[in-house]
UniProtKB/TrEMBL annotation:
GO MF: tryptophan synthase activity
Protein name: Tryptophan synthase beta chain
Organism field: Macellibacteroides fermentans
Catalyzed chemical reaction(s): (1S,2R)-1-C-(indol-3-yl)glycerol 3-phosphate + L-serine = D-glyceraldehyde 3-phosphate + L-tryptophan + H2O
EC number(s) stated in the UniProt entry for this protein: 4.2.1.20
Its biological purpose: The beta subunit is responsible for the synthesis of L-tryptophan from indole and L-serine.
Cofactor: pyridoxal 5'-phosphate
Alphabetical list of HAMAP family matching this protein: Trp_synth_beta (MF_00133)
Subunit structure: Tetramer of two alpha and two beta chains.
Domain Tryptophan synthase beta chain-like PALP, residue spans: 57-379
């Protein structure tokens, strides 16, 4: 059977691999040789599952959104990752990676963050495990996500604002990689999405796959079937999307829909629709689709959502697009805002702007009354209230 998951060389079709400086070769090789042994070990699974249950609050609910369903003429279930401790799906991954870091004898944790959710999740698990934590965050994002910055500091993390480039997620990732190059021996880099050199895309997808594992069980209980007709998720780097589709990706009966950030429009010059605008290139250690100029310079993405303005895409999702396994839709800023307010007023749920892009895909699709749709609400909207308030003026 054809599989869309990673192969032994770290590739998804033609995308993936590990394109890294020599100084990081040993770190990445050690990680590659260790992660599967640890993730598949009984003691790791026991500790990981216990923390997800007792600390994060899993399983997250699968909620039948009745009024939203009536609006779109189908049965829409929301996978409520917004109800996790720290308010997003990111904590699933950071708990798994810090348990791995501890088993590898690392004492210093670094991370990058855009919207701040991954930074908060990393700072949270570092507080839990009593480990030093440094989070790199673009200065632009520091200013627009100030509540998350204060949370990270309260949790004991050092937040380092990055002033290169357009001072957002790409630039924060650049600085985190530079730090890792300078401190390879004691440092573990907790990457927040399915990006970076192999084995990160696969490792993050596996840790987030608890989402799709739960969807299968919950849907069987609620609908008498494990498989939905549609799975919908937003995609920036791609971690919540990878987790949502992991256990369904090889089943062709399930239609996968990924919503990327259209910004002010795909042709506006201010967009983060990487899959639709990108060309093959290398970014942060992986071969994937990259927004770039004619001469290969990385172009600055734009989105109203700080968590989606990344100029690359995880190699897992690049391959899903190239093989036509997933339908990729660009949702622009206004469509995402409209979708967020619609969910809030129909269901009393204020979503993160990232998740609002997934919701913004609903009007672009045609459903039958019998269709079962699962849409992942990857995070809650607390961090985005300033943007929502501004849009109401």
């Amino acid at each position: 059977m054809k599989t869309y998951l990673v192969n032994e060389e770290g590739y998804y079709g033609e995308f993936g691999g590990a394109y890294i400086p020599e100084i990081l070769h040993r770190c990445v090789e050690d990680l590659k040789n260790t992660y599967l042994k640890v993730l598949q070990s009984a003691d790791f699974k026991q500790e990981f599952d216990a923390l997800l249950r007792d600390y994060v609050g899993r399983p997250s609910p699968l909620y039948l959104a009745n009024r939203l369903s009536a609006r779109y003429g189908c049965r829409i279930y929301l996978k409520r990752e917004d109800l996790n401790h720290t308010g997003a799906h990111k904590i699933n991954n950071t708990i798994g990676q810090i348990l791995l870091a501890r088993r590898m004898g690392k004492t210093r944790i670094i991370a990058e963050t855009g919207a701040g959710q991954h930074g908060v999740a990393t700072a949270t698990v570092c507080a839990l495990m009593d480990m030093k934590c440094i989070v790199y965050m673009g200065k632009t994002d520091v200013e627009r996500q100030h509540v998350n910055v204060q949370k990270m500091k309260m949790l004991g993390a050092e937040v380092r604002p990055v002033t290169s480039g357009n001072m957002t997620l790409k630039d924060a990732t650049n600085e985190a990689i530079r730090d890792w190059c300078c401190n390879p021996a004691d440092t573990f880099y907790i990457i927040g999405s399915t990006v970076g050199p192999h084995p990160y895309p696969d490792m993050v997808a596996r840790l987030q796959s608890v989402i799709s594992e739960e969807i299968k069980k919950q849907l069987l209980e609620k609908e008498g079937r494990e498989n939905p007709d549609y799975l919908i998720a937003c995609v920036g780097g791609g971690s919540n999307a990878a987790g949502t589709i992991y256990h369904f990706v090889d089943n062709p009966e399930v239609q996968i829909v990924l919503a990327e950030a259209g910004g002010k429009g795909i042709d506006s010059g201010e967009s983060a629709a990487t899959i639709q605008l990108g060309r093959m290139g290398i970014i942060h250690g992986a071969k994937t689709l990259v927004m770039q100029s004619e001469d290969g310079q990385i172009e600055e993405p734009y989105s109203i959502s700080a968590g989606l303005d990344y100029p690359g895409i995880g190699p897992f999702h690049a391959n899903l697009s190239a093989t036509k396994r997933a339908l990729i839709l660009a949702v622009d800023d206004q469509e995402a805002l409209d979708a967020a307010f619609e969910l809030t007023r129909l269901e009393g749920i204020i979503p993160a702007l990232e998740s609002a892009h997934a919701l913004g895909a609903l009007p672009k699709l045609s459903f039958k009354p019998t269709d079962v749709v699962v849409l992942t609400v990857s995070g809650r909207g607390d961090k985005d209230m300033d943007t929502y308030i501004d849009s109401m003026k």
